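We were asked to recover a plausible sequence for a given structure. The inputs and outputs are reproduced exactly as logged, with field labels preserved.

PROBLEM: sequence recovery
POSITIONS: 299
GIVEN STRUCTURE:
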């Protein structure tokens, strides 16, 4: 199947890799392989691939996998991973233009160096700009929609779209754009400030994050969305799930809205533990937690 899929794909200037391991590309360090992994050379190469593939070819996009669980059976079809060439950044007044593969933390640092405030919260988001756009990522009271100016995306047929804030249809932890859009660039805006003061605020956020979250563990970040008026970690703690284990997957002792791979956990261990947490919280409080981590692939 993989060879037939590979033979049917259009010629590109980037690279195709068959049966490519993904576990080392995602933060959980668990999960299966991509049937085909595609790294485009540039935006035009990505558009060429999307325009030239068969209509029934399944396409998925991953970044650094900081909020992603790849199931053990892997991901069928083509997985697109933007290489470093999609991570360029430039400063334009109080705006920062960034490629979708740029790390959120790197964007925060670039803005601080340029004396642009308001983007410090990005330092606490462990992912890429593309993923942050897709999920309206946020922390410490701010989210992507607060700094968003515009974004460029390529749709499933290879067409380019320039998206305004209204086009993004931002809601809590989600952008309401078509699933086949692949983000390639964004423009964020802050306000002019003193670089030293901005860096001090950013460093304070980093210290707070490191003191309260298991950032040095194999994790997927915040596991469940906060229900209206509630904190997921508190509901999980009250349901007696702090430290709960399934195989080598564990609910973090440090912050119980984080699941961690405490050894060599399978994706099934991690997802199963998450479902057990959801069931215990529902039984205790009547509240049904919603996954924030994106789970992809086949068991």
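RECOVERED SEQUENCE:
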């Amino acid at each position: 199947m993989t060879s037939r899929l590979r033979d049917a794909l259009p010629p590109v200037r980037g690279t195709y890799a068959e049966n490519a391991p993904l576990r080392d590309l995602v933060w959980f360090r668990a999960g299966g392989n991509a049937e085909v992994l595609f790294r485009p050379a540039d935006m035009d190469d990505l558009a060429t691939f999307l325009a030239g593939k068969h209509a029934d070819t399944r396409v998925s996009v991953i970044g650094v996998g900081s909020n992603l669980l790849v199931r053990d059976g892997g991901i069928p079809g083509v997985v697109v991973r933007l290489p470093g060439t999609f991570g360029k950044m430039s400063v334009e007044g109080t705006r920062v233009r960034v490629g979708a593969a740029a790390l959120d933390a790197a964007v925060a640092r670039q803005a601080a160096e340029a004396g642009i405030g308001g983007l410090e919260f990005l330092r606490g988001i462990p992912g890429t700009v593309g993923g942050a756009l897709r999920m309206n990522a946020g922390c410490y009271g701010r989210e992507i929609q607060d700094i968003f100016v515009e974004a460029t995306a390529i749709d499933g047929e290879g067409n380019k779209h320039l998206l305004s804030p209204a086009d993004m249809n931002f809601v809590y932890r989600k952008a309401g754009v078509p699933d086949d859009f692949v983000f390639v660039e964004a423009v964020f805006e802050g306000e002019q400030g003193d670089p030293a003061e901005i860096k001090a605020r950013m460093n304070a956020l980093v210290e707070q994050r490191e003191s309260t979250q298991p950032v040095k563990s194999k994790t997927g970040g915040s596991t469940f969305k906060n229900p209206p008026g509630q904190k997921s970690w508190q509901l999980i703690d009250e349901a007696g799930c702090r430290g709960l284990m399934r195989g080598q997957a564990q609910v973090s002792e440090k912050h119980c809205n984080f699941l961690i791979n405490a050894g060599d956990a399978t994706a099934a261990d991690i997802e199963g533990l998450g479902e057990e947490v959801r069931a215990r919280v529902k039984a205790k409080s009547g509240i049904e937690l919603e996954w924030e981590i994106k789970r992809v692939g086949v068991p």
